[in-house]
Write a structure and sequence with these properties.
Layout: E1 2-6, H1 10-21, E2 25-29, H2 33-40, H3 51-61, E3 64-67, H4 70-75, E4 79-82, H5 97-110, E5 117-121, H6 129-142, E6 150-154, H7 164-169, E7 174-178, H8 181-188, E8 198-201, H9 203-234, H10 238-247, H11 269-282, H12 288-309, E9 315-319, H13 334-344, E10 348-352, H14 354-361, H15 366-372, H16 374-377, H17 384-390, E11 393-396, E12 415-418, E13 431-434
Parallel strand pairs: 1-2, 1-4, 2-3, 4-5, 5-6, 7-8, 9-10, 9-11, 11-12, 12-13
Antiparallel strand pairs: 6-7
Helix pairs in contact: 1-3, 5-6, 9-10, 11-12, 12-13
Bound molecules: nicotinamide-adenine-dinucleotide.
């Protein structure tokens, strides 16, 4: 393919050199004449392992050139990859001036063009930027419509400085966000020789993914560092602890616990976090990330309560009471906390949890229920049908397989608040609200 790459910094220079190496014809564009001259002289504008060799070979084969002229690059290409910087402003907001300017330049060049063109965002931008800035700027400056004269894709970049060339050839996956399959398919052709799964999604998801990734990476580093700081105080080798932690690929290094949903609870996680934080404080050790976990968990309960309060209906049915499905354990259940919050605000509650109902009669939790939450026990329903019948708002707080058999019981005047993604919105006759979707 004939590719224009806008921005020849850490991302753009590597991308240009690697696509040139793959046999594409690449024209790099930068406003910085030094970087353009470097590429044209076969030198690397940045320090990155093996990059200079790649650029030199690109020049020797004639597959890689660079220019400061956006028009020239658009004329010579069918696809543009935008790799310009998106730095922080002083107040932390994202500075999109380079993105906007480059879109204006590409758009102006597109005004003269007859054939369709694809513009690909590789720079990291917040969700909504392609639809709210990139597309409108290109439309205004080209006089063409998105989807007709040009297509926009979001293709987040996953490479790391220091191992960027290796990362280009071994990405964890390729993600293409687009509004049309046609645009996504055209971009996917660029990656046919890269051995990674290519996932196509919408623009906002692709934009969001990059932030979720980077936040996760930062969280992992900080988590390891806080565990390390605590280990040091306890005289434990943190590298051994973290090596063992990462050996568990079922619960630790896996998709487990990574689905957004309601708050955590139960007899272990809250108790153990409290003990950890208390012990760290005894060492005069501040561990803000670990300390903030229970704070965040409490906010999760408050946010959910607020969603219910905003419905403005007083008769609320809650499906599930134990801290998770499949158990009768009520200790530190966030659903109990949610119910108590609502009772305190004068809501008329009905609760259905078959495991807890059984426990109240026979189980080992009988004493706990009678001692700690007798007021909640009195609100328990015997059947799901009864709960649905008596409620204006139904909160699906735990997954309950019997919901599927009761979909016909829901009425059009009811609202379902689904904390677990247990049902599909189209199966609910009334209003459906998901916690995070
Ligand atoms: N550096 C990384 O490891 C990395 C990894 C993944 C994603 N990203 C993201 O990729 C983007 C680029 O990052 P970077 O580190 O390569 O930035 P960089 O600052 O190294 O390079 C950006 C380049 O864009 C050029 N530029 C600015 N306006 C231009 C214009 N109108 N036309 C042509 N060139 C223009 C600048 O002169 C500069 O050379 C950012 O959004 C960043 O968040 C970076």
């Amino acid at each position: 393919m004939e590719i224009a790459i806008f921005g020849l910094g850490y991302v753009g220079a590597v991308t240009a050199a690697c696509f040139g190496q793959e046999g594409h014809r690449v024209i790099g564009v930068d406003t910085d004449t030094y970087k353009v001259a470097c590429i044209n002289e076969g030198r690397s504008p940045i320090v990155e392992r093996h990059l200079e060799e790649f650029i030199r070979r690109g020049r020797e084969t004639g597959r890689l050139t660079a220019t400061t002229c956006a028009d020239e690059a658009v004329v010579q290409s069918e696809i543009a990859l935008i790799c310009v910087g998106t730095p922080s402003r002083r107040n932390g907001s994202l500075n999109l001036e380079y993105v906007e300017r480059v879109c204006r330049q590409i758009g102006a060049a597109l005004a003269q063009r007859q054939e369709p063109y694809t513009v690909v965002m590789r720079s990291t931008v917040l969700p909504g930027t392609c639809e709210g800035l990139v597309v409108p700027t290109l439309e205004a400056s080209s006089g063409k419509r998105h989807g007709e004269g040009f297509h926009v894709c979001m293709n987040p970049e996953f490479l790391r400085e220091g191992s960027a060339i290796h990362d280009f050839y071994h990405p964890p996956l390729t993600v293409i966000g687009a509004q049309s399959f046609e645009a996504a398919d055209r971009l996917a052709q660029l990656y046919t020789d890269i051995p990674a799964e290519c996932v196509k999604t919408d623009l906002r998801t692709a934009e969001m993914l990059k932030y979720a990734n980077n936040a996760f990476h930062a969280l992992k580093i900080t988590f390891a560092n806080e565990i390390g700081a605590w280990c040091k105080q306890e005289g434990v080798d943190s590298h051994v602890v973290m090596r063992l932690l990462t050996m568990d690929t079922k619960l630790n290094i896996s998709a487990a616990y990574l689905t957004p949903g309601f708050a955590f609870g139960g007899s272990c996680l809250p108790k153990d976090l409290r003990a950890l934080v208390y012990r760290a404080h005894q060492h005069d050790l501040s561990l803000p990330t670990l300390e903030s976990i229970l704070v965040s968990n409490r906010l999760q309960i408050e946010r959910t309560a607020e969603t219910i309060v905003q419905m403005g209906k007083k008769r609320v049915g809650v499906v599930g009471l134990a801290f998770k499905a499949g158990t009768d354990d009520l200790r530190e259940s966030p659903i109990v906390a949610l119910c108590e919050h609502l009772i305190g605000k004068g809501y008329s509650l009905r609760i259905y949890d078959p495991n807890v109902s059984l426990a109240a009669i026979y189980g080992s939790n009988k004493a706990y229920i009678e001692r700690e939450i007798p007021h909640i026990q009195a609100l328990m329903c015997d059947s799901l049908a009864e709960l649905i019948e008596q409620s204006e708002v139904i909160v699906l707080a735990n997954r309950d397989e019997s919901i599927a058999d009761h979909l016909h019981c829901f009425r059009a005047d009811q609202t379902v608040i689904d904390l677990t993604r247990s049902v599909s919105p189209e199966n609910i006759r009334g209003r459906y609200i998901g916690l995070y979707w």
